[in-house]
Specification:
Layout: H1 3-28, E1 35-41, H2 45-61, E2 65-71, H3 75-85, E3 91-95, H4 99-104, H5 112-118, H6 127-132, E4 134-135, E5 138-139, E6 142-148, E7 150-154, H7 155-160, H8 172-182, E8 184-189, E9 192-197, H9 203-208, E10 211-223, H10 250-266, H11 268-276, E11 293-298, H12 302-309, E12 315-318, E13 332-341, H13 349-359, H14 362-372, H15 383-388, H16 394-402, E14 405-408, H17 415-430, H18 436-471
Parallel strand pairs: 1-2, 1-3, 10-11, 13-14
Antiparallel strand pairs: 3-13, 4-5, 6-13, 7-11, 7-12, 8-9, 8-10
Helix pairs in contact: 2-14, 17-18
């Protein structure tokens, strides 16, 4: 347990830096001095370097404000503690799914007044990303770099399986058929071990599961997102937008049945042995990057990891197919975003908002996105951005984000708890210890109880809190 004291020591140091920042702020008012805006961001490595370059540009562009950038691990936990202590930074970088919880806990400043004065609104953004920044009728953050999910595939493995590498699956049925063809097993036949496609096994061999997985076509549980998100590709609704959890929605039931069928096809022990032979996610030891998985769902950041860990991999990318009839046939994706917020009690909200507004400029947003090899949340994109972007899949991700089938995560303050419950349910279904109906019924009961508790608390404080948000005039 030696890590825990170090974590709290790090937090104490950050809070102390916040206090020291307050002391600096006292001197900021001196004639000719810049106002110091402290900015905490979750990024590290090249992503942090990209934002630092943007911060440097902002600091050079004017002589009134100096933004000081600090890369902070576990920024969500530390921001809540800093805000509750009364010493938050001026700006913080969070994930869009933090917004409902943080706003209801009174940890954020509503931005609507500043947005109105700046002339910024929904028309400036791809709709799904604007929606992610909203909760309870207010806007709590603005996007920096967004993301959505697509299907990456290994063209070499497609060719070896006799599949056209320029024709990825277009339907869920095609995805499953290709996955079976691309899955290679080692099995004993006629007294010797042979490697064959799973599609070429006899029904008896499949049922016996007396084989070893050498290569897989696609495993739903191996994705760059939470496994319960598969419900979106089956038309699931997770929440009715008011007070009703929909964990056992027909779409989620269908998705969990799909998960179950994967385990039934390949065998729980075989899947466990295959997964246990690989290392941590987003490294060269993952199945896809290691060349042992033909298809995986990931976001626009995935080419960065391909370049780093599998530079010779020949890959393609396409919309991940959905079940028939979902979204009217429009491409389905799950959307999230990195966002910047102003914590409640920030020493310099006006100056903080000026910096946030600067990040929304098209040239600035495109510089950051290009450096991080992502796209922007803005409704407009320049020809130069697309022509010179280092990520060859960037046009696809932009089109997916703009699709009517783009789905935001539920705007629930208990979403992380809900997702954790769904993850447990998915694991039980994959282990074949629960049926989808039984697993999701349990989630429905547990999460509905949690939401009821949250709504009772909101009923007691919501009117007062909403009035406070509406009356905020820190701009």
């Amino acid at each position: 347990m030696p890590a825990a004291p170090l974590r709290w020591l790090s937090l104490s140091a950050l809070l102390a830096s916040g206090l020291a920042g307050c002391a600096r702020h006292a001197a900021d008012g001196a004639a000719g001095a810049r106002v110091v805006v402290n900015y905490w961001e979750k990024w590290s490595g090249f992503e942090a370097d990209a934002m630092q370059a943007v911060v440097n540009d902002f600091n050079r562009s004017q002589d009134r404000i100096e933004v000081r950038f600090l890369s902070v691990s576990e920024v969500d936990t530390k921001l809540l503690l800093a805000a509750s202590s009364g010493h938050p930074p001026d700006v913080a970088g969070l994930w869009s799914d933090n917004i409902p919880d943080f706003s209801e806990k009174g940890a954020l400043t509503p931005l609507d007044g500043g947005l109105a004065a700046a002339g910024l609104g929904p028309d400036h953004y791809i709709p799904v990303f604007w929606e992610l920044c909203r909760h309870r009728g207010f806007t709590w953050g603005l996007p920096t770099t967004p993301g959505c999910m697509a299907l990456f595939y290994n063209k070499r493995l497609f060719r070896e399986a006799g599949l056209d590498p320029e024709k990825p699956p277009r339907t869920l049925a095609e995805l499953e058929a290709m996955s079976r063809r691309l899955t290679i097993v080692e099995i004993e036949r006629a007294g010797r071990r042979q490697r064959v496609s799973f599609a070429d096994l006899t029904p008896e061999e499949r049922q016996a599961h007396h084989f070893t997985l050498v290569q897989v076509g696609h495993l739903p549980q191996d994705a760059g997102m939470f496994v319960s998100a598969w419900g979106f590709w089956f038309g699931a609704r997770y929440y009715d937008g008011d007070r009703r959890i929909l964990a056992d929605d027909a779409g989620s039931l269908a998705a969990f049945q799909w998960l179950r069928e994967t385990s039934q096809a390949y065998g729980v022990d075989n899947l466990r042995d295959f997964g246990g032979s690989f290392g941590i996610q987003q490294s060269g030891q993952t199945p896809f990057l290691g060349g042992s998985e033909a298809m995986v769902v990931q976001g626009p950041w995935w080419p960065n990891f391909i370049e780093q860990y599998a530079p010779g991999l020949e890959w393609g990318v396409a919309a991940c197919p959905a079940a028939d009839g979902v979204a009217g046939g429009a491409p389905v994706t799950v959307a999230q975003a990195d966002v910047v917020v102003i914590p409640r009690g920030a020493p310099h909200p006006r100056e903080a908002f000026e910096f946030i507004r600067y990040l929304q400029r098209q040239d600035v947003a495109e510089k950051l996105a290009t450096s991080q090899r992502k796209f922007t949340a803005l409704s407009q994109v320049s020809d130069g951005f697309l022509a010179n972007h280092p990520n060859p899949a960037i046009r696809l991700f932009i089109s997916l984000a703009r699709s009517p089938g783009a789905r935001p995560l539920p705007r629930l303050s208990i979403w992380h708890e809900y997702n954790a419950e769904m993850a447990v349910a998915a694991e039980r279904v994959l282990n074949l210890s629960y049926t989808p109906a039984a697993a999701l019924a349990e989630v429905q009961e547990r999460v509905q109880w949690k939401l009821d508790r949250v709504e009772r608390r909101w009923d007691a404080v919501g009117a007062k809190r909403t009035e406070e948000w509406r009356a905020y005039d820190g701009w």
